[in-house]
Amino acid sequence: MTHFDLTEDQQDCLQEIINVAMGQASDQLARYLDTFVYLKVPSIEQVSSKHISDALNVEDQAAAVVSQGFFGYEGIRGEALLVYQPKDSDRLADLLGYDPDELTLEEQIIDLSSILTTTFLNVFASQINNQMSYSAPRFLPSNKSAFSEHIEQQSFNWDLALKVKISYQVTDYSFNCDMILLIPESAIINIAQVIDRILEEY
Predict the structure, then answer these.
(1) Using CB atoms within 10 A as the burial measure, which of 6, 86, 106, 134 is most buried?
(2) 98: containing domain
(3) Nearest-10 crossing angle of helices 8-33, 185-201
(4) Closest Cα partner for 98 from 115, 111, 79?
(5) DSSP per residue over 102-136, as a string?
């Protein structure tokens, strides 16, 4: 992450903040579904806006994607994406306890995505003395070109972004989904300044 000029201490602090938020979101999901949720170690890396769709591995007709923008104080903002494989999204009605035809598949996916996104980001924000607001979740067409167009139309302009990928696995249902955060370079610089204040307190 050299382009963001984060020191080793800053990176370690950011990783810990992400871990805490990820754990809270996992716990919320586990309570909501009354089952155990397994977490992999999150991946954090730089990506270029020119290659973002490749970096996210979104293939034609391979996944359902829900996008939700988030906005905080001090220029902290980004895009949260929840990515589901078709075989997993088909299990959502049973997973969420809905009656058949109670909600459309799209509504079910948005419902689950909102829980994960807002829980994670609210905990993330609280740790850096911030507060998040959100755009309405948006169900994206499951094809690569439409996804790429959506990313290009985001309200923030960026060349580089920090990509945080968190994988949730619901063991009782053999269900998996990925939450991917895209944080533009300008927001990472602002987060680094907040992290410095946190580090100074210790």
Answers:
(1) 6
(2) 2-201
(3) 100
(4) 111
(5) SS-HHHHHHHHHHHHHHHHHHHHHHHTT---EEPP
Residues 6+ apart with CB under 8 A from 181: 78, 79, 80, 81, 162, 163, 164, 165, 166
Residue from 74, 107, 71, 73 nearest 92 by CA: 107
Rounded Cα gap, residues 109 and 133, in angstroms: 20
In angstroms, the CA 59 to CA 74 distance is 35
Distance of CA 135 to the CA centre of its chain: 14
Residue 90 burial (CB count, 10 A): 14
Q: Which two tokens stand for residue 93?
A: 């009605």
d(CA 178, CA 72): 23
CATH code where residue 159 lies? 3.40.1550.10
**CA distance readout (Å), 51 to 56, 151, 198:** 9, 11, 33
Q: What span, in angstroms and rounded, lies between the C-alpha atoms of 189 and 123?
A: 20
Number of domains forming the structure of the chain: 1
pLDDT at residue 1 greater than cutoff 50:
no
Residue 73 is given by DSSP the state S
What phi and psi values does residue 132 have, to the nearest 5 degrees?
-105, 145
Mapped onto helix, strand or coil, the DSSP state of residue 117 is helix
pTM of the model: 0.82
Query: For residue 180, what are its two tokens?
Result: 């991917």
Compute φ and ψ for 163, nearest 5 degrees.
Answer: -105, 120
